[in-house]
Amino acid sequence: MKITLDKKILTGFIFCCSILLIVGFVSFRNGEQLVTTNQWVSHTHEVLYELEQIMLASTEAETGTRGFIITGEEDYLIPFTESRLQLPTHILQMIRLTQDNPLQNQNIARLEKLSQEHISMLEKCIASKRTGLDGAENPVAKGETRQILNEIRMIVRAARNIEQNLLEQRQQASDHDARRFNYLLMILLGTIVTVLIIVYGIIMRNLRALRRAETEMAEKNWVLTGTGTLTEAMQGNLTVTPLANAIIQHLATFLKASMGAVYIADDAQANLHQQAVYAVGRVAPATVAFGEGIVGQVAASRKEIILSDAPAEHFTLNTAFGTAAPKTIMGVPVLFEQRVAGVIVLGTLDNFTTAQREYLRLSTNSVGIAVESSMARTRTNELLEETQRQSEELEAQQEELRQSNEALHAKTELLERSEIELRAQQQELQQINVEVEEKVNQLGEQKEKLEQAKGEIERKVLEVEVSSRYKSEFLANMSHELRTPLNSILILSQLLAENKHKRLAEKDVEFAHNIHTSGASLLNLINEILDLSKIEAGKMELDIEPVPVTAITETITTLFTEIARNKDVTFRTTIAPVLQKATIATDRQRVEQILRNLLSNAFKFTPKNGTVALSLQAENNNVVFQVADTGIGIPKDKQEIIFQAFQQVDGSTKRQYGGTGLGLSISRELAHVLGGSIRLESIEGKGSTFIVSLPLTFNETLSVPTGKEISVKARERTVLETSSTPELSDTAPNDDRAQLTDSDRVVLIIEDDDKFSQVLLGFIRERGYKGIIATQGNTGVSFARTYQPIAILLDIGLPVMNGYEVLRQIKNDPALRHIPVQIISAYDKKREGMLLGAFDYMHKPVSVDDLHKAFERIENFTSKKLKKLLIVEDNVQQNNAIRELIGNGDVKSYSAYRGTDAYDMLEHEAFDCIIVDLGLPDMTGFDLMEKIRANDRLNKIPIVVYTGRDLKKEDTQRLGKLADTVVLKTANSQERLLDETILFLHRVEAKLPPDKQDIIRRLHRTDEVLKDKTILLVDDDIRNIYSLTNALEDESVHCLTAENGRIALEVLQANPSIDLVLMDIMMPEMDGYETTIAIRKDPAFQKLPIIALTAKAMKGDKEKCLTVGMSDYISKPVDVPQLLSLMRVWLYK
């Protein structure tokens, strides 16, 4: 049964009144309880008051009596008299108040008895005093009255405690009743509010329903009215166009639309044709295909489309004052029996209401019927006209048919004659078919032969692949067999050439040098053969990186300048201006290898006083390297074969020029792999020009030959490889080394460009310094030790030893590491130099102003006797410990405990170095460093991060950009922190306290890492064991040996204290891989360092070594210094 609105409201009203009555009743009952509770609280307070009065009266009676006994004055008896009168009253009042409490009745009865006894004793004492008989028997003197008073006090205290407990209980009961009343009141009031909200919601829902019904009724009436007027407008025998005009006029007027159009579909249901428009400013399209635009899409989808905020290009409204774009466009399909009869489009400056849209949808039904009726009438009229026209045409066709029959008789005679001719042609075709069958049989035989040839080719390809695999395996094995004895030759000849024990004559040392040089040449030949085989097998690895074009030319120019000078050959290098600051994405090592091969050939075949030129041009996003010489030239018939492996122009036994014939072959293959090309232009007797074209941007898809795989790695180099140029003699240039005195201030210039070094020398002399020039890296280090300069100007691209290695050796030498090193180089590797301890980094070309600024910084730094260090650490003990560690007479340390304080100090003080902890209270160390690096005045200050937190990968990457070095807080981290600050503050180690000098010396004494260590050398070649054992024992290393993996495992079990294993790979019984796997299975040797020694320098060897559990990898022939360095790393870990 449906409940009416009146009953719902009445029910809610009755429910609210009931709750109000309950609230009133509960309030009344709670009020009575509160009154009762308050009365009992007042009663308790009265009891407590009477107890206090009893105690007070007893005390005053005692006090007054004692005063009288002591003084004899009657005035002291006034309190006694008043107390004796008041006590009975107070006791009676207490009896009345506590008559309902049996426990208190007992206390009051006892209290009454004691009070009477107490008053009686005091009266006796007073009487005795008055009669003069107050002797020793006086109760006051004996303390009897005080004892009774104490009992009274105890009873009063007990009674007071009882009343206090009752008071607390009654107070708690009162609070509990009040809280319970509040909770109940809130619940009842909440219920009333909820009921009122529900009643309000019911009323409002019914009111909204009534309004909706009223609105819907009005809209329906409006729609019915519009439908009737539309039907009236469409009445009559109207054709399509007048009907369309009547429809759009009525709809636009009735719907108050601003513009509109009517499109009628053709019979094929493919296009819509415009029949009427209303106030359309721009000419609407006359024909629209289904699916084209809004109109076509409405027809194709058979659904209405409403376009809000329509662009002006759709339709425009034409008025007397101009044009305007409608805000909303609505397209509605007109359907008749599931067929699209047309589309109505209306536009308005406002939005269409729901009623308008509904009316338009309903109107399309009657519009569709009217349109279809009009079109049917039109088609009927057209058919009538067509029938009349066809009747006339039929009469004309009958006349034509008669004429055709006459012509047909004549053609029949011609056909009979043609039939005779066709029979003859059929016989000829049969003969041709026989010949075609014979040719088909021949083609079938040829196809079988082709299939056999294809199978033969596939077998050949398989044989070639097998041969290629055997070739690669053969080269790998040959590499092992050649490198193994070569390893011993190079190591032993190097040991003999060093002549540490001075046992060899000078001639013997020279022989040893020749042996080592010949072995190195043989190693280069082996490497060339392996390079060629890797390229042919598609195993070449590329190291793609962006490289300045000028950096390549600097390296090559440095390499061949001295060679040109020794051969008396003119060597020129030219670079197009557009390439001066350009970079090329390529494998720098391979590009330089190509240019070295071409230039080596050019110098080899160019006679004395000849010319060799290297030029660089830009051409179609390519860099074109041209190596031209005025040598002997190459005959036309030899220009192609020289690019083949092991082929030369003169291959006879009496040839004048040596060589393997591999350089040009390798160069061409490398150029192809790098996505470029190489070609030759030469005239015999006049010279040759090799032209290498390489793309500015490496494209791997263009570089890899078909069927080959090239491994490409893109990364940034951090350290330049040392040039393989033979060591050149550093002849004495025109500098000041011969005029030095003890008081001179010396600046060392390490620069291989003679002209630039002379420019720097002149600049140095102008500033009052003496200059020493070194053109090679190794002599630069030697000169630094000899002349102890106050500053060093260093280039990076140096022969023999590159600039980074020079800087590393200087900063690792305690006697040199304090010297500021100013790098001046074309290499864009500033961060690497600064991390190694450079004072500053300048890019070539440099101006005189740049040099002045650089020297001003150096002079300010070297003249500053006191360096300033800022320590940013929030832990006070840590901060003080760092100051104590680094502090000395030449460094003043400042402390900052917050990031903001540190930045304020940096803005007001000039600091030389900063130590930062990452965990600061107000900001992270990262935030502080980012602020410092963003400040142009502060971003050159070295920052050392000293932290104990675990660094994630992203933290390490951020620190790589912000900090100069990172020191993790460990047991020995303070020594490294001291070392890093000495490096960046350029402190003189000799001026440090002795204990700190010992710390630095211990830290840099690398041989201590090797001393007395036990190494297991596993190799089946006795020559390798002999040579490596001698080399290692010179470093105070104890060597144990094993000839194969099985023996190695036995030695390890017998000597578990072995510190490191050198493991050969190819061995009998158990190879290096199997041995390593067996070692790692033993938990005791899980962390034992194992370094692989192998001559199989093929792709994938290193990955396989690391996969089976080896720690690192070094290829034969073993470079002893490299091996020692690798051992130090793993033994130090």
Question: Mind explaining what this structure looks like?
Answer:
The protein is built from 30 helices and 31 strands. It has 1133 residues and is α/β, with parallel strands linked by helices. Helix 21 links the parallel strand 24 (913-916) and strand 25 (943-947). The longest helix has 145 residues, at 354-498. The relative contact order is 0.04. Residues 649-660 and 704-731 have low confidence and may be disordered.
The level of helicity is: 55-70%
User: Could you tell me the mean pLDDT?
Assistant: 78
List the strand order in the largest sheet: 3-2-1-8-7-4
Number of domains: 6
Number of helices: 30
In terms of structural class, how would the helical and strand content be classed? Answer: alpha/beta
Q: Report low-confidence residues grouped into runs of 5 or more.
A: 649-660, 704-731
